[in-house]
């Protein structure tokens, strides 16, 4: 029985090998076969394994071309040097240059070179010198792909985001920050049990301090004295669906980008207003954040310097509505209120209410009925580089960012989440959205999401 099994196993193996070999032969000329063998030998000499057959095929073609080049050069008369199939034999010259060499000669034209040369008056020099024989040279080392590939990643990232630094010093500084961030991101992504992934998004060359300073301006830390409304129209709601996604009900406009202006509060309030307007009228209209930035300046809201969603709602009520995004477009800087555009109202609200504080169940009742403005602590590095998955922290509860909860649900692996629309463009997170853990032990919710939620009524 054992012998029979073994035989069966061996014959299967043979069949497989023959089949494979037969395939190779029919696909290649005999000449190619010996070249294919040379490539295989070379691969095993350098311990190279390609990620898939396509890559192997591609590398084989480059290897073959290089072998031809090397042999032609070695057969040429009068060349005092020989070439060989070393570890670079499966790279094109462009790839070789890109991967290996990064002496920054091309950036050096302005560098002042030293002018003293202590050997300038030396007259007698020996015919032959070999410092290895004098014990002054260590064995040859291998730089591998070292920082070079990181430099390339930074370059790729710069071109993806269209970034040009003002001078080589700034570039060098940003490169160092980028490198640190990549290390942080990779360590986080390699850590076990993290249900979310980080990525090198548009913030990848900013330190966390710079990120916080530039982006978020929800004035949560100044809010302790603000009087919150006490009515909550959804307090008696008992049946809430397991999953809600207001995008699928046509109540959410495409993700916007606040740029470097700290007016997240305006984006949050506008998204909630767009939501209730769509739900009550059936018309989804993109509304103007810039109108809030420019015109809502008589109260506590201060354009790019920060503001509150509730005060934005107050302004919208008093102003009898907001103009459209199209008619009062976003500029990303504080501007003078365009009174003519301000006077046109494409959508309005009649009031607003606050969700009972520190109560994720109450928040769920509200979000089950409409998109809701929420304040969060978005200052952590993991929030900065969030790419995908259910975000589980780490973050605090120093509310500094206004966003909009446009749904909730349960992920495939059972993680309960809030579906949150951000205003950092579609490059960040899941096409501009983040799924934040829901139902955490802390009553404030993850990143304080249940601390200061509110919604407009219409
Ligand atoms: C080389 O010789 C010149 C002329 O004597 C002298 O001025 C100079 O300092 C010497 N340089 C060094 C590095 O000794
Ligand atoms: C909820 O139910 C209570 C008790 O019936 C009632 O007094 C209250 O007005 C209801 N709240 C809302 C918002 O309908």
TrEMBL record:
InterPro entries for this protein: Papain-like_cys_pep_sf, Pept_asp_AS, Pept_cys_AS, Pept_his_AS, Peptidase_C1A, Peptidase_C1A_C, Peptidase_C1A_papain-like, Prot_inhib_I29
Cathepsin propeptide inhibitor domain: residues covered: 39-96, 154-211
TM region(s), chain numbering: 7-25
GO biological process: proteolysis
Compartments where found: Endoplasmic reticulum lumen
CDD domains, per the entry: Peptidase_C1A
Keyword Hydrolase attributed: yes
Keywords: Disulfide bond, Glycoprotein, Hydrolase, Membrane, Protease, Signal, Thiol protease, Transmembrane, Transmembrane helix
Cellular compartments per GO CC: endoplasmic reticulum lumen
Natural source organism: Vigna unguiculata
Record protein name field: Vignain
Peptidase C1A papain C-terminal domain ranges (all copies): 240-457
Keyword hit for Aminoacyl-tRNA synthetase: no
Domain of life per record: Eukaryota
Pfam families in the record: Inhibitor_I29 (PF08246), Peptidase_C1 (PF00112)
Sequence similarity: Belongs to the peptidase C1 family.
Alphabetized GO MF terms: cysteine-type peptidase activity
